[in-house]
Write a structure and sequence with these properties.
The protein is α+β, with helices and mostly antiparallel strands and 175 residues long. The chain is built from 2 helices and 11 strands; from the N terminus they run H-E-E-E-E-E-E-E-H-E-E-E-E. Strands 1, 2, 3, 4, 7, 8, 9 and 10 form an 8-stranded antiparallel beta sheet that branches. It has a 3-stranded antiparallel beta sheet with strand order 6-5-11, with no helix packed on it. Strand 5 and strand 6 form a beta hairpin. The longest helix has 31 residues. The radius of gyration is 21 Å and the shape is elongated. The relative contact order is 0.18.
Length: 175
């Protein structure tokens, strides 16, 4: 009996040692390297959630790839909403700092993207709350780059940076 109690204490002690190592490692991984997120809404259709309300895509968000704010036109990124800091949104990068972009319904017809900012839009124009509503977005609001669709299984794929030809910047500032 005493031997069984000693064995139980040993297992409990081992469990807590593992727990106190695993939790910080897991939290650090999810915060700094990558995590999984469900995409809601129609703003990125047809690239994400092509079935509408019937199914939500689940994507892999890579935090590590944007740690130096290295994004390119066409990337799908997750960012903190400029209007509601409690909310994360997912959009496509259309223009980078120094680019001049023709807007769709923004207060100015043409916008030059300031230093340290990007222009983001949803793929489903008219159903997207994006830079056409709030303007250029600070790179500091970037959260992660969406790299893969993980769910549903029939949609497993790597997300490629694709910029619609009609949304290419009009001019790039000379560096």
């Amino acid at each position: 009996m005493a031997q069984a109690q000693g064995l139980g204490k040993r297992y409990i002690k081992a469990f807590f040692k593992g727990f106190f190592v695993a939790v910080p490692v897991t939290v650090t991984f999810l915060d700094r390297v990558a995590c999984v997120a469900r995409v809601e809404g129609a703003s990125m259709q047809p690239s994400l959630n092509p079935g509408g309300r019937q199914a939500s895509d689940v994507v892999l968000l890579n935090h590590w790839s944007i740690r130096n704010y290295d994004v390119q036109r066409g990337d799908i990124v997750s960012l903190v909403s400029p209007r509601n800091p409690e909310q994360k949104i997912i959009k496509r990068v259309i223009a980078l700092e120094g680019d001049i972009i023709k807007t769709i319904g923004y207060k100015k017809k043409y916008v030059k993207i300031p230093h340290g900012h990007i222009w983001v839009e949803g793929d489903h124009h008219g159903h997207s709350f994006d830079s056409n509503a709030f303007g250029p977005v600070s790179l500091g609001l970037l959260h992660a780059r969406a790299t893969h669709i993980l769910w549903p299984p029939k949609r497993w794929q790597k997300l490629q940076p694709v910029l619609p030809p009609e949304r290419k910047p009009l001019q790039r500032e000379q560096e």
